[in-house]
Structure formats: structure tokens, C-alpha cells
Amino acid sequence: MLELNLLRIKFMMVRPAIVSTLFFLAFLGQVFIGHAQGQGLPDLKLSDEARLEWDTLELINQKAQDTHDLPERAALLNEFIERSTPFAKEHPQNLNIWMMRAEAALELSKPNTGWEAGQKLKSLGAMKSEDRRVRKVMALLNYKGWLNASQPKRPEVSQSWENTLGMKFVAVGKFHVCVWETRLRDFKEFFNATRYNADSNMYSLGSGGWKIRGNTWRSPGFNQTDNHPVVGVNWSDAMAFCEWLTKRERAEGLLASNQKYRLPTEAEWILATGLEGEALKKFPVIQEGQLKSASGNYAGVESKEGNVPETWDFLKNYTDGFRETASVGSFLPNALGVYDLTGNVWEWCLDSAEKIRDVQVRGEPKDAPKKSEKIMLHAQRGGGWATSNLGSMPLDTRKLEVEDARRCDLGFRILLETAEGGH
């Protein structure tokens, strides 16, 4: 009996050590299983310098995951991709680094980085993995087309093109034009990456007419989804968007040095209509003073239900189903596959014109001579959801306005230019 009790005491003494050992072995097993599935330690044979660099890369990636500030997150993920490039080349069999690079590329819409990671993951057997994280990443890479054998190509003059924002372009002559007006989701990407300020002096429509009410492109005074055209942006805002997008896609290797995004000239905008000469004056079709049905998003009967003045002028015999902006592509495209060149929002063009105007000199009496100054105007085309004047609808109609104008019926469309030469 005494011997039995002593045996029990000895077991009680060693049991914690046994349990601890079992837990340690279980943990170690999970580490190695995790490594095989794309998690855990990257490589137990790393040198001290390589291990330190791996820890630094993990730190940067974790900081990106922890932040809720989207521009900061994008900056950290870009830093991770740039800094992890030499590590990935030196350790090509490290599944985890390719997983992390693939996830960053998916979030930042970097096709070439994502394609490279996808090819490496395939060669490392990720296609056969049962790990949920790995399978999700592989599915997303496949959806993007980044598991294909061929690397993502640059846009070619005669072929359609889809960029990293999902904006679709069709070839028109020697350039590509976006089939849609720039969407709210596209401008949000720009804002999130740059924190660009486009929030001041926007004119919006209300019961008192067109006034500055504190509305912005994010909240124009009516509801929009991400698929609606961005409004309340001026000419400089549109140009800044194009410059940012060009820089982003050149860095990814998707655009050559002779390719860039910009606003269309008026001549290019007209080419995108697929019409010329007198045909421009006859579209949209107006018969006996009435706009043909389904011609586009204009100020139809439903616009009267919005926040508009009592004297609001609208098309009394026309309905299009949209009180303000419509989602891009809500109406039929033209013969070239381009949507909404008539109605929805007015679109900025690249063209400019100088105008001389007389202005009152600050501090001088009202009857004092005025000072002449030059102002720069830029063209707008296409009409918008608040347009009710039939004379403003034909495709040959242009409007000139100062480049800092922001209105809730004014947006933009971009094109991709391919100049001679480049690499």
C-alpha cells in the first residue's frame, strides 16, 4: 500500500513535465504543419541576417494588417513588396513569402507581382494544399487570371484593355477610351492611396437652386453606389487622378514609358461617339420637340421628385428611371461599345481656352476702373442628369467652364494614350 502511494506521488510529480512535453510536441507539430501549408516559420536553416530580415518583413506586414488607415495600409504593403523582393529571390522555395506577396498584390491590384507569386506558389505545390488560407489565395489568383502561364500584357493599340482598377477600355484609332465614366470606386482608390483633397467649393442642387452647400464627391447631396460616376470633381482633380494611375501602372510594368492616362481632347471624345459631321447634331434623337425614349439619363419627369427648386425645368414627356446619376452602363452602348456619352454627367475634356474678363480690384471703389485678367476655361461634353435644355444635348454641343469648377452633375472619362516609341 505504501509502495502504491509512493508511485502515485511520483506520477503526480512527473505528470506536469509529461503534459508540458506533450503540449510542446503538439505545438512543434503545428509549426511544421503550418509551414508546409503556408504558415509559421519560413525556414529553420536561415542565417542570422536572413532571419532578422524575415522578422522585419513580418513586422511590416503585420503593421499593414493592424492599421485601419487605408493610405497607410497601402504604403506599408507597397513597402513590404519592395523590401521582400530580394528575400523572395534568395529563398525561392519559401512558400510563406510568396503567400504574403500574393496577398499584398491582390489587395493592391498589382498583376505582375501577383502573377509571379502565383507561378511560384504553383511550383511549390500550393494547388494541392488543403489549407483554407492557401486555397482562398489560389482561388483569387485564378479569378484574376494570374495563374495563367503567360504574364499580364501591356495594352496593345488594336485590342481592348482592363486596368488594375477594373476600368475597361476599347480601342478607338490609336488610343483606348474607357467605356464608362470614371466611377466612384475608381476615385476612392485614388483618394485612399493619396489622400488627395477635392472637397471644397462644390455646387450642388437644392430647393434654392445651384449653391455651395458643403457637399463633396463623397456626399454630393444624393445617394450613390460605387458603380455610379464620381461627381463634384474639377479639371485639376481629373488630371491628378490620371497622373496617379499612370504612375501606379508604370511601376507595376503594365504601361510602357510612352503610355499614359489622360482626359480626351474634344476631337478624341467625338471619335469615341463613332459619329461625325451632321450625325453629331442629330444624336440623341429629338423629334417634334421631344427626346426619344431611352436616350440617356437627363432631367426627366422623375427629376422633379428630387431636391430641386419649385421652378425646376424638366422634360415633361421623358422618363429614364433615374432622379440623379445612374450606374455606369445603365443604357445601351454605342457601336464602339462606349456608354453614357449622352447624359448622366457632363465630362471634362483636355482642351482649354483663354478668356479675358474684367474684375473689381479689391479695396477700390465700385466705380473705379476694373482690371482685366485672363482665365483658363476647359471644355465639357455630353450633358448630364440635370440637363433639360434640348439644345445642350446633341453630341456636337460643348460647354466651357473654369478649371476649378465642381458640380454634382460633372464628372470625367479617361483615355489611354500610346505615343510613338517607348519601352
Termini separation comes to: 90 Å
Radius of gyration: 30 Å
What's the name of the CATH homologous superfamily of the largest domain?
paralog of FGE (formylglycine-generating enzyme)
At CATH level 2, the architecture of the largest domain is Alpha-Beta Complex
Instruction: Report the principal-axis shape.
Output: elongated
- Give the low-confidence spans: 1-41
Average predicted local confidence, pLDDT? 86
CATH class of the largest domain: Alpha Beta
How many domain regions? 2
Order of helices and strands: HHHHHHEEEHEEHEHHEEEEEEEE
Largest sheet: 5 strands, antiparallel
Q: Level of helix content?
A: 25-40%
Number of helices: 10
Assign the CATH topology of the largest domain: paralog of FGE (formylglycine-generating enzyme)
With strands numbered from the N-terminus, the spatial order across the biggest sheet is 1-2-3-14-6
- State the total count of DSSP E strands: 14
The secondary structure category is alpha+beta
What does this structure look like?
The structure is a single chain. This protein has 423 residues and is α+β, with helices and mostly antiparallel strands. It has ten helices and 14 strands. The strands form four sheets. The protein has a five-stranded antiparallel β-sheet with strand order 1-2-3-14-6. α3 runs antiparallel to α4. The longest helix is centred in the first third of the chain and has 35 residues, at 2-36.
What is the secondary structure topology, with strand pairs?
Blueprint (H helix, E strand, L loop, with lengths): L1 H35 L11 H19 L3 H21 L4 H14 L2 H13 L8 H13 L16 E2 L5 E5 L2 E4 L5 H11 L7 E5 L2 E4 L22 H17 L7 E4 L3 H8 L4 H4 L4 E2 L2 E2 L54 E14 L11 E11 L16 E5 L3 E2 L2 E3 L2 E4 L5
Parallel strand pairs: 4-12, 9-13
Antiparallel strand pairs: 1-2, 2-3, 3-14, 4-5, 6-14, 7-8, 9-10, 10-11
